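User: Hello! I'm new to structural biology and keep hearing that structure can be predicted from sequence alone. Could you demonstrate with WD repeat protein, DDB1 and CUL4-associated factor 4-like protein Wdr21-like? Please show me the input and the output so I can see what each looks like.

Assistant: Of course. The first part below is the input, the amino acid sequence of WD repeat protein, DDB1 and CUL4-associated factor 4-like protein Wdr21-like. The second part is the output, the predicted structure written as tokens.
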Amino acid sequence: MVGTPLEIPGFYYDSARNRYFRIASQGISTPSAHDYTREHLNQYNSRKRTSSKDDEKQSTTKKHHRNLLPSLNKYLFSRQLAGTFGNFMNAGLLGRRGREITFSPSLQGITLQKIHWVPGLNKYIFSSSRGDMFISSLYSANDSNLHDLKVSPNNGMVPQKVNVARLGLSPSSITSISSNLGTGLFWTTLSSQSTESKAHMCSYNISQDSPENYTQISLRSMKTPHCSEFIKGVGFAVGGSNKIALLNEEGVFQRNLHSKGDVFTLTAVDQNILAAGCRNKSVLLYDLRAPSKNICRFAHDASVCSTSLVDSAEPKLLVSGLVSSISLYDLRFVRHTSKVSHLMSYSGHSNMVERNLAFMCNEKGTLFGAAGDDSHIRFWNIDSPEIVADFQTDTTGTNILHPDGTWMKSKDTEGWLLLVNDRVHFYES
């Protein structure tokens, strides 16, 4: 060793042997000589520098995460983990007060395509294949109480006639109808040789029984709009060719959400989460609080035709696709990279080729119905794969399709409205 040896408390240096030896102590603890070797000091300083960098990085990460939104999975998983229980009594009485609703003036020769219940108006609006828009109530002029109607014999339909008003005529086919929580109406139309695809908005004046404040919005970036959905606190979403357009409640364009596939159906899980069903079998979950690339994705068994939210508090999503597939998924278990298994798969549905068929869930999330391509309307309890009710339209030898349907709740009754050619069938729950 060169120079004067380093003095270490509790040790002495033996120059002949060129090393330190511990001094026998009287019960007093002294540091180990190993703590003062050059290699150990270098290792200690290196660990200290690394630890300092890690602490600085962790502190920066914590500051950064203060401004980050909770992930979509964490957001959904904060919901209650309760079960969904069906109302078997209502399931047993399903359709006992079925009605076949015709209109005055008559709509004979007109094929109805879309229907939407507007709670703020206590009315439903519907459109025809040629672009007509109509509005009507479920009540006849002499109906003081819907329960005065007799029970349907053998699942037959009790006839009822109601008044209908024509809202207007669109120059091209209407592809979707929606509404806000009040009296605002919203619909989309296809492009044609002379016009581009558009979204249309108006408010309905209840006292004057007429629409007002009509406006239209160009959807030139979307060749074919297929569906629309109102999102509380956001506005309207329009799904179509490879994207979703978001508009505020005044109809001003906000942004596009890209889907990499045609969007056939939209369902607002809540004001922050939007579910989209696509032609390519994907179901996409968009977090509207974040950039459009923040997406969770899972695959259904076939091209997705319709979706319906069972309960926003849980939340679970019913997905209907081609090849007669209907499944229930729990959105709280959807991850970016993992495969999602359905909670339940429902048997008995028939839909091999038709994309636009009625599909609707009741308000409580206990029962849902689906129209088949065999003229049948089938209902399931959400907790059972087996059919609880099956109705067949009087086809008189022809196959009648139900292109659209909606759940409604009005005054003293609730049930399902379904389009059948120029009339509406109502199945009371």
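User: So the tokens describe the shape?

Assistant: Right, they're a compact way of writing down the 3D structure. Reading them back into a model, for example: The longest helix spans residues 38-65.
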